[in-house]
Amino acid sequence: MQAIIYANYGGPEVLELREIDPPKVSDGEVLIDVHYTSVNPIDWKLREGLYASILKFDFPVVPGWDVAGVVKETGASVSKFAPGDRVYGMTVSDPLGIGTYAEQTLGREDVLALAPQNLSLREAAAVPLVATSAHDSLFRLGKLHAGQRVLIQQGAGGVGSMAIQLAKAAGAFVYSTCSTRNLEYVASFGADRVIDYTAEDFVEVIAATDPDGLDFVLDGVGGETFRKSHQVVKPGGILVTMGDFPDETMAKEHEIRSIFLDATANGMLLAELTAKIERGEIALPEITELPLSEAAEAQRRSQTGHVRGKIVLNCGEI
């Protein structure tokens, strides 16, 4: 089968399209004919070796976590899925090696769900990681509930657009940041106050209307944005970071909790989201499609931090 692989850490140039042996299904696993995968920041962070000290890698690595495709074969104990089922999910091997930038991949039964009937597999591929990340950050880590006031940085990104919708559905007041060209796009997901970071300082905007601070902030930008985000969280509030690792000294200074997002693959959660998508309760991010052969270009775009919505890679659907 064809797959994108990298044999060592490095820039986008280490990604190669190769012919490799397909993975073999084992008990509890599902072999999937991949139609689409999507590109996420974690893909290029892993490729660059940013998590080399805390994760195990089995080189050559096939990158990718999101998958949308059709079940080819199931392990002996699999009961939820059968060959021919349209499925989607967020799947990662341990050690890292068998990813989703490929014509076939493996997924454990418990991390997959039937794809929403009203979505194409192209659209479904854009959902699993961002929806899981948004849900985990808001509810598992952030303990979000109705009446709280929150800030979602980078609202035009995949996680941001999903987090805005889930937070609004839970009854929160939502601030979000984006560039000028994305103001209407981010507002379309339901944000109550969209802040143009090219023209406004989010700290000043929030201080004017919420001088006591916010209950929760989700930051995937990192750097100066991450540092400034501490200033808008009220004492006892929560900052979940996807960009930088928590700074315990800074968190203690502002009397807040700073938590790194460790999104956990969850097929039951995806099944719940599927029902919401089929009822029209969740809008999808904008999708840009590239062929699998252009994975390096896709990761370059992701690395700029200015992708609107999601990039998906066509791994075999014609």
* Strand-residue proportion: 25-35%
Look at the structure and name the CATH superfamily of the largest domain: Medium-chain alcohol dehydrogenases, catalytic domain
Whole-number mean pLDDT: 96
CATH structural fold name of the largest domain: Quinone Oxidoreductase, Chain A, domain 1
**CATH architectural type of the largest domain:** Alpha-Beta Complex
How many domains make up the 3D coordinates? 2
End-to-end Cα distance, whole Å, is: 16 Å
Uncertain residue segments: none
Structure description:
With 318 residues, the chain is α/β, with parallel strands linked by helices. The chain has 2 domains: 2-127 and 285-314, Medium-chain alcohol dehydrogenases, catalytic domain (Quinone Oxidoreductase, Chain A, domain 1, Alpha-Beta Complex); 130-260, NAD(P)-binding Rossmann-like Domain (Rossmann fold). Helices cover 27% and strands 26% of the residues. It has 10 helices and 15 strands. It has helices at residues 41-47, 121-124, 128-141, 158-169, 183-187, 202-209, 223-229, 248-254, 267-278, 295-303; strands at residues 2-5, 16-19, 29-39, 66-74, 86-90, 104-108, 112-114, 149-152, 173-178, 193-196, 214-219, 233-241, 257-260, 287-291, 310-314. Strands 3, 4, 5, 6, 7, 14 and 15 form a 7-stranded mixed beta sheet that branches. β11 (214-219), α7 (223-229) and β12 (233-241) form a beta-alpha-beta unit. α3 (128-141) crosses α4 (158-169). The relative contact order is 0.16. The model has no long low-confidence stretch (mean pLDDT 96).
